[in-house]
Design brief:
TIM Barrel, six-stranded parallel β-sheet, 28 helices, 43% helix, binds glutamine, binds zinc ion
């Protein structure tokens, strides 16, 4: 019985890699200096795992930006537009970063590759680009070099490669008239070269990640996967290939899996159908000689492993397969959890005793293998400690609040619905609000200048008192209101200057949330996020946004829109407790937001926005489960929004453009107004809204806030006119496509002026 991990976080415990790369980008570091830091991080990660007692240690899980991009350069899937850089002798690393981030210099102007979410995680990978008859070649020797590095350090190294089939499935065809899977033969030829080199260097185990095996597959996709593994086996009969799946169960593809050669099958037993393990053990798998690697230690969440449960699963597998055919592992790569709990100085001991970050998860993997082979006295003591921590968490009063549970369990059908249907509300709101045709507004935040950030830092350090800090924020809010009045916007916002992050701000004020100091997780490239931990029943003890909203409202006769983060987004961007259904936790958050909405209304706020940018990314990996998720997610939003009178206008905001799949659910959210991103796709997504006959009001973003570029009046007029083709006039709102937090004031002012002028032109045309 062996144990292994599928991958380890590469940013470093204190984000050392992030800092080094950004320093290199800023030209403060030479490439050689960056290389030394990277080598050191790899060494530390390997040695950490070696010391913990991990048997097989992943290599090539390190990356300067993204593992899929690494594979693109490894197999020479470098799009044609970067060839000019190769021709002008740019280094491999320079080409690599140009692919990740684009390159704009005097001599070059090349766009970056696209980025998208890695399955249902918050990690983003670079999307490979494919063209017809594309040839591949060994371009970067990264995996080979890293393998050499590891064995030179005496590491029991297991190179990790994304399977050629999954690599193709992750990418996009950049021309019409061919299927990316047609490229498989070409790609396999390069893999043969790579694996041949690894074998010559002494590799005996190679992990082939085939994450698509946990998804719905077409016949063609199944064929590609089958062909891949048969090929590898035929070419390399001496290598033990570990076929790794994760993030969901593999039941749908079990038949296919049982026809695949390979030495080891890795499954994620923390997710998906609970019966997965039992079904695999009863299947043909039992009669084969393959090893089953059990992904027991959760690579996606931060809770301590429940050893009692894990050991039961290990024993169950051993009973059927025999001890030699069972391995123990993390469920997925540990990339998606923070690095080390030991660094946390501010979490209390009780909470810490419930948690486990990447470093602790190594110990869990190793201890689980010891406990199911030859445990020492010390191992058994640790098992006792584990049992105790699990039990204490189960029973803790910090987690379980009768009042909250009770309220959640008594939610009634009517709590999800507004008093009247949208048609009636629309009339009442029209009378109550008296807004002009094409009302103009923004999405909430105004620029978070370095100054604003420095006030918060000083306040946190203690060098600004709360009074001083608030005065500065008041001044900033007042200026933002003045500006919005001046430029002539119809519905104003306070500007969100008091907020660090749209989830953290609420989490910090709610019971049941905890925050780490160093709980960073890579989101994309060098960008990391620090998700809050929802450990207990969620409760709002006092209003969270009332003061700032009312303060801003008192400064103006125009409406100030209340600004809240929705329950699904708060859930989605946190580490969520695993001891109750996500739906229950989401409802608890929804009730807290609902109370805030009602308080805002009571204080005289007539328009309230509840942002739900993350609702789409919560979609389960398998389509069959979409409806269940969408039902409870939409209901949670409605629960948060429905405590108010018909006259109060509820807005929501989403910032992505793939609505087609879920448009019906978006309509079911029944927000009076939705503001959405769509300036980049030139209103294309409105097709979805038009085809569906979206009933409520819509603000299709009329300019892209992701770029500092100021649009012209003519461009914005053009976009509004396009929108008019899809949406009835009386339903259109005019706004930018997302919050303005990341922009600077000068461009923000100019762009909003343009937006208001364009709206005026359109209004004049209508009146004429
Ligand atoms: N109200 C938020 C803001 O303007 C919305 C952010 C978002 O859509 N992600 O910043
Ligand atoms: Zn947005």
């Amino acid at each position: 019985m062996k144990n292994h991990t599928l991958g380890y976080p590469r940013i470093g415990a204190k984000r050392e890699l992030k800092k080094a790369i950004e320093s290199y980008w800023a030209k403060n570091h030479a490439e050689e200096a960056l290389d030394i830091i990277a080598k050191n991080i790899r060494k530390q990660n390997w040695e950490k795992q070696q010391q913990a007692g991990v048997d097989l240690i992943p290599v090539n899980d390190f990356s300067y930006y993204d593992q899929v991009l690494d594979l693109c350069v490894t197999v020479g899937a470098v799009p044609q537009r970067y060839q000019e850089l190769i021709d002008s002798n740019f280094s491999e690393l320079e080409v690599y970063f140009a692919m990740a981030r684009g390159l704009q210099t005097e001599n070059h102007d090349i766009t970056a590759m696209e980025m998208t979410k890695w399955f249902d995680t918050n990690y983003h990978y670079i999307v490979p680009e494919f063209v017809q008859n594309q040839k591949f070649k060994l371009f970067s020797k990264k995996v080979i070099n890293e393998y050499k590095e590891a064995i030179a350090l005496g590491i029991d190294a297991k190179p990790v490669l994304i399977s050629p089939a999954s690599f193709l499935l992750l990418g996009k065809e950049k021309e019409k008239g061919f299927d990316k899977l047609d490229l498989l033969d070409n790609l396999l030829a390069v893999y043969k070269q790579i694996i041949g080199k690894l074998q010559n260097l002494g590799a005996t185990y190679i992990q082939i990640d085939e994450p698509f095996l946990a998804l719905n597959l077409s016949e063609n996709e199944k064929l590609a996967i089958h062909k891949t593994h048969t090929f590898l086996r035929k070419e390399f009969p001496l290598i033990n290939f570990i076929t790794a799946t994760y993030f969901d169960d593999v039941l749908e593809n079990l038949e296919l899996i049982n026809t695949l050669p390979g030495a080891v099958l890795h499954i994620d037993v923390t997710r998906g159908d609970e019966t997965q393990l039992g079904q695999i053990l009863q299947s043909e798998f039992k009669n084969q000689s393959k090893i089953l690697s059990l992904g027991l230690v959760d690579g996606r969440n931060i809770w301590k492993n429940d050893f009692t449960k894990s050991i039961a699963k290990i024993n169950k597998a051993k009973e059927v397969l025999g001890a030699d055919r069972v391995w123990i592992a993390t469920s997925s790569s540990l990339l998606h959890v923070p690095v080390d709990l030991e660094n946390e100085q501010k979490l209390d001991a009780e909470l810490k005793s419930w948690l486990s970050f990447a470093a602790q998860k190594l110990d869990e993997v190793v201890l689980l293998s010891k406990l199911t082979t030859h445990p020492t006295h010390k191992d058994l003591l640790q098992f006792d400690e584990n049992k105790q921590a699990i039990q204490e968490r189960r029973e803790s009063e910090r987690i379980h609040k009768f009042k909250v549970k009770n309220r959640e369990s008594f939610i009634k059908e009517t709590d999800f619905n507004r008093v009247s249907a949208f048609k009636t509300r629309k009339e009442l709101q029209k009378k109550a609000l008296n807004l002009p045709l094409y009302p103009t507004t923004t999405i909430g935040s105004f620029p978070q200048t370095p100054e604003v950030r420095s006030w918060r830092a000083q306040y946190k350090k203690g060098s600004l008192s709360i009074q001083e800090y608030n005065q500065l924020l008041e001044k900033e809010t007042r200026e933002s209101i003045d500006f919005q009045e001046q430029v002539g916007l119809d519905v104003l916002v306070h500007g969100e200057f008091e907020r660090n992050d749209m989830v953290e701000y609420f989490g910090e004020q709610l019971e049941g949330f905890a925050f780490t100091q160093f709980g960073w997780v890579q989101s994309y490239g060098t960008r990391c996020v620090k998700p809050p931990i929802i450990f207990g029943d969620v409760e709002r003890l006092q209003p969270m946004t009332l003061e700032w909203t009312v303060f801003a409202q008192q400064l103006t006769n125009k409406y100030v829109k209340g600004m809240l983060t929705g329950p699904v987004t708060i859930l989605q961007w946190s580490f969520v407790r695993d001891d109750q259904p996500r739906q229950t936790t989401c409802n608890q958050i929804a009730l807290a937001i609902r109370d805030e909405v009602v308080d805002l209304e009571r204080a005289g706020i007539k328009i309230i926005q509840i942002d739900e940018p993350a609702i789409r990314e919560g979609l389960p990996l398998k389509r069959a489960q979409w409806n269940t998720y969408l039902n409870w997610a939409v209901n949670a939003f409605k629960l948060s929004a429905s405590g108010v009178k018909d006259e109060t206008q509820i807005h929501t905001h989403m910032c992505y453009s793939e609505f087609n799949d879920i448009i019906e659910s978006i309509a079911n959210m029944d927000a009076d107004v939705i503001t959405i991103e769509c300036s980049r796709s030139q209103m294309e997504l409105l097709d979805a809204f038009a085809a569906f006959k979206y009933p409520n009001e819509i603000g299709p973003g009329v300019y892209d806030i992701h770029s500092p570029r100021v649009p012209s009046v003519a461009e914005v007029v053009d976009l509004i006119e396009k929108a008019e083709k899809y949406i009835p006039q009386e339903n259109i709102w005019i706004n930018p496509d997302c919050g303005l937090k990341t922009r600077k004031w000068p461009e923000t002012k100019k762009a909003l002026e343009v937006m208001v002028n364009a709206t005026q032109q359109i209004r004049n045309k209508v009146l004429a």
